[in-house]
Amino acid sequence: MAAIDHYINTIIDQGAHEAHTDGSATIEAHHLLLAIAAERGTTTHQALISAGLDHRAIRDALDREFEHSLNAAGVSAAFDLPRPSSAPELPSQLGASARLALERGFASVARKKDLQPAHLLLGILQAEVGTVPRALALAGIDQADLKARVLRTLTNAAE
Q: Contact at 8 Å (CB) between 18 and 95?
């Protein structure tokens, strides 16, 4: 198994744990982002850290996005909402946002051997709508700068 296959499997497996914790039936892009942030010692982790996004900061941003979405729907976050209940099993299917992130991230690569972990992160960050861009915007993250950091990681890896 190639190193990129191992990395992707690790991120998807960790994303399944994140989804299970959220009570989600599928693994979505924000679960993959949390998994990338938890995978220490990688270039993708370092790119997130350089933007002030560790696992806790991303989780907090996602929580703020959830509260913001509830408020937009007229539900006050002042109520003590119950935590989602976990499904008895880990989700095994990728949701639409995760599949799109993989497609976007890998679309620019002609050969599988050229895939890097940063392609997955870039695919997540290239979403223009959805949970991840809303959460990052609410957290005050300069998403263009973060994408540029990830692209520099890819450029440096290619040299």
A: no
